[in-house]
């Protein structure tokens, strides 16, 4: 994909008209050091020729508002000071990545307005816990949830036996989990890859019943044993990673 890169751009002083002069055959807009505190409709209204936006190394950015009429399919924010985000109902965005920011809510409530979201990555934030009910109730198209390298110490699973989630990959490595009940993930019947490596896990309870499961990642924790005897079957599991435990 062809891309256009802007550096040290301050739209509050220079305006947004520069985007009107970008060749229409570019599909990715990269902005290094976006020098405004807010990303909102003023930017997205000028992006109709782009499918992907990446904003990085932007210490001024603190707020994000994605409007309903935005047509981009991918949005990445890397190394910002983002602490607040709001998403209007939008049917275009499919990939959302926020990494290395002080965001402290695992899912801003409005992210459930992104009904066609397929991949959500929230990494290196201040997120401390997660309740996955919204995966069943709202983001039914989501296939990949990557919440590596946060501060998550506990997880609450769906309050039902099964749900219609399409989730196939759940990554929660390098967090602060100490105890895990695998039944928190059992409602995700399409799940293929569950990786909770490099936490502080001392005990694992419960079992997973997903027949689609093929990889379990438990490496780098504080486990002294794992009991699979009470599992009826391991289905299609081809790899279980348990290195670097006790």
Automatic annotation (TrEMBL):
Keywords: Leucine-rich repeat, Repeat. Pfam families: LRR_8 (PF13855). Signal peptide: none annotated. It comes from the Eukaryota. SUPFAM superfamilies: L domain-like (SSF52058). This is Leucine rich immune protein (Coil-less). InterPro entries: Leu-rich_rpt, LRR_dom_sf, SLRP.
